[in-house]
Amino acid sequence: MSTRSALPILTRRPHEPPVEDPADARFPEVMLYFGNACNRECTFCCVDGRPGASFRPFTAASVRAILARILPDARIKLYGGEPTLHHRHLIDVVRALRAGGYVGRLTIFSNGIQARRLIEMLEADPPTDRHSGSDAYLNHLIWLGRGAPPIPAGRRRALLSWAAAHPGRLFLGHDDILPVGGAESEQTRVGALSNAPNFAGRCARCYPTFHSDGRVLACAFAAEVRSPQYDLGTLADSAAQIAARRARFLQFIDGVVEPEAALHGTSPCRVCLTHARTLSGTLRRH
Description:
Elements: E1 2-4, E2 10-12, E3 27-33, H1 60-68, E4 70-79, H2 87-99, E5 106-110, H3 115-123, E6 134-138, H4 140-144, H5 153-165, E7 170-172, H6 185-188, E8 209-211, E9 215-217, E10 231-234, H7 239-264, H8 268-280
Parallel strand pairs: 2-7, 3-4, 3-8, 4-5, 5-6, 6-7
Antiparallel strand pairs: 1-2, 8-9, 9-10
């Protein structure tokens, strides 16, 4: 649900799960992840984003594999890291997806620091109707300057001006960041789920994350956590194989993670990461 602020940018939750068709193994929503290279290093980051971190481009083969595993009108969410650091490559990826028959809505998650590049990405993929084209979500805490330096004033004005001229294309993300990606996150950064009406006490149950290195992951918020519990295979596997592994992961969430979180009055993220740590021996930064 959207709520209008005093700005020409709406605050909206991007987690609006689509309806799945049990007869079709292709996914109605996926996340595309290219690594955690970023121009900021925020303590609340869910994937340990920072300057000099990893970036792997998507290949033509990986784009073809993604197209074969999603519905043509699927919701695609593109995140890292900071997409504007690699905006020309990602514009080419989106164009390749469109050329391959993808007609759905694509969402870019950005901190907005490189405003002109973000606008260029949005203008490269205009909508033909309300279900197509690209939109973008700005990091709520960076926009407000809470726990991180805010967007520079000139770039903020550029985003506000563009948003006013292009309603329904640029949003503020919700403020219930799930900071689970860093090595010490279960001690210091599992955050404010108590104020999150759609997340409190529950796993977000994201659709699979397709990493540009070919891995398929169960949790978008733990994309940099190396643990077998999040491993759904690779882009060489069929949609049906990936879906079957995701179903087992969700059984683990339903049967272990959420009941244990409720029993101990803690967040599911903390419980899930504790199991990841047990399975992998450590949470490492990559």
